[in-house]
Amino acid sequence: MKLSHVKLYLLCIVVGGLTGVITVPYRYLLVKSSDLRDILFSTAHSWWFHPIIIAVMWISGMGIWYLVKKYPIISGSGIPQVEGAIFGRFKFLHSLKTLIAKFIGGVAGIGMGLSLGREGPSVQMGGFIARLVGKWGKASISEQRYLYTGGASAGLSSAFTAPLASTIFIIEEVEKFDSVKIAVSSLLAAIISGWMASMVFTVNAYTLINTAYPDEMNIGEITIAFILFSALLTIIGKSFNYLLLRFQKQYKDSRVPVYIRILGVIIITYILGYFFSGLVAGGESFLLKEAGAIHTEIGLLAFLIIIKLLFTPLCYATGFPGGIFLPLLVIGGLSGKLFALLLIRLGILSPEHFGFFMLIGMSALFAAVVRSPITGIILILEMTQKFNMLVPMTVVVGITYFISEIWGAQPIYDLLYKRLLPANYTNSDERITIPFEINSGSYLAGRTNKTINLPYGCYIESIIRDNEQISEKNYIFKPGDQINISLYSKDLEKLYRSLRNIANE
Q1: Does residue 267 sit in helix, strand or coil?
Q2: CATH fold of 430-503, please?
Q3: DSSP per-residue codes, 84-128
Q4: Out of 45, 180, 239, 378, which residue is the most buried by the measure of CB atoms under 10 Å away?
């Protein structure tokens, strides 16, 4: 192992540890915020107390809006922003301040009941920490990119105590780039933060869910059920993506003053919290409650799924710090129970086996929306410790992914990422300069600047060697050189991985 790799991996371990120090308390506060919501949404209050609570929530909402306005990079999930930072599209400036703002904004927004997940902010806070560690550790351009992946993986790992799924998510969705260094960097950081989370969150309520295979269903019945369930989840996933993007656009383009818009969201949150306190925020407590309740009205459950399906995009449209992972998993789990109740009504499934479809629904809906099937499977297996679900879960996830692919579903994070790019960027001739570090085994190493061919529109703007810019017209590329490549801004996402591969980063 090279000395430079040792330094990188040590920095990744530091990133994982520091990310755990921040994101584990973040998760703890969000878990404990359910006690606060029980007080806020209590039916025991006098009528005059409810307007006071709404006013306090409104003031908190305006405070979050101020933070987002001051630091726009903290808006929303944070996962697309980390991906953009890896590309070089976005700069994580003032990382410590934005880290604090993301922490406060996430705790305040999700804590008072907005239907958002803890994972997105955790991922971005991991990215902020990676930027700080990279700066303190004098990381190179190449090392900083790996630290970003490590920080993102560590943040997701601490959010769900799932280090393996977090690493796979980075490879499958964020990087989309097959590299041993990416895998090792992500896994090292994820293991550290995941271990820290496991020390605090020692109880796993998911293990109580009965996920035994429904032997009462024959092979024909289970096959038809899997296909119909996959089709249902595809429809729900497609609807979720549409509503998320639609609400975001409508909210942004609305002429209604922002303080009125925020007040409207707060009032809706309060009403839902008053009647269905477990359904607000991430909704995990409501999901676990339903996992232990055999008798649920089909009509009521379908209504609550629709409410969660509408409420989550509405909350995300505000731009407040928060992700979509957890609400998405909740919708998937509840949809699984709804489908199971229909099978029970038809006399095909025994009542005690609805948990089987709940866990499958969580992973399959994730695959339909995020388009990361392997992550969806491993994440639910790590979260629930129900490894007996691997085969049926893989089958339904595969079918769901296939149907979604035919329907033209696109990865939600790719769609959200495009929303962050400048308007009409695809028609712009604006250029951007991205640095890469030449490593051993690179296509460029040992070649001269006259003998290389870069993709159309790309040229080497400058080259830095030993902290000095090379001025010669003819030079030979060497490992350790930093090349600054100029390209059309609209082509960055298309060419980034190819250029990184050329440099063998």
Answers
A1: helix
A2: Alpha-Beta Plaits (3.30.70)
A3: HHHHTSS---SHHHHHHHHHHHHHHHHHTT-S-BSHHHHHHHHHH
A4: 378
Q: For the domain bounded by 3-200, which CATH number is listed?
A: 1.10.3080.10
Output the DSSP codes for 3-55: HHHHHHHHHHHHHHHHHHHHHHHHHHHHHHHHHHHHHHT-TTS-TTHHHHHHH
Pick the CATH number of 205-420 from 3.40.50.1000, 3.40.50.970, 3.20.20.70, 1.10.3080.10: 1.10.3080.10
Tokens of 248: 């975001």
Written as six digits, the tokens of 39 are 């007080």
d(CA 236, CA 410): 14
Rounded to the nearest angstrom, the gap between the alpha carbon of residue 164 and the centroid of all alpha carbons in its chain is 15
Model pTM greater than 0.70?
yes
Q: Domain-by-domain residue ranges, the chain?
A: 3-200, 205-420, 430-503
Rounded to whole angstroms, how far apart are CA atoms 14 and 154? 11
Cα-based angle 150, 317, 319 (whole degrees, multiple of 5)? 50
Write the CB contacts of 352 (distance below 8 Å, at least 6 apart in sequence): 210, 212, 294
pLDDT tens sequence across 351-361: 889 999 999 99
Q: Which residues contact 297 (CB under 8 A, 6 or more apart)?
A: none
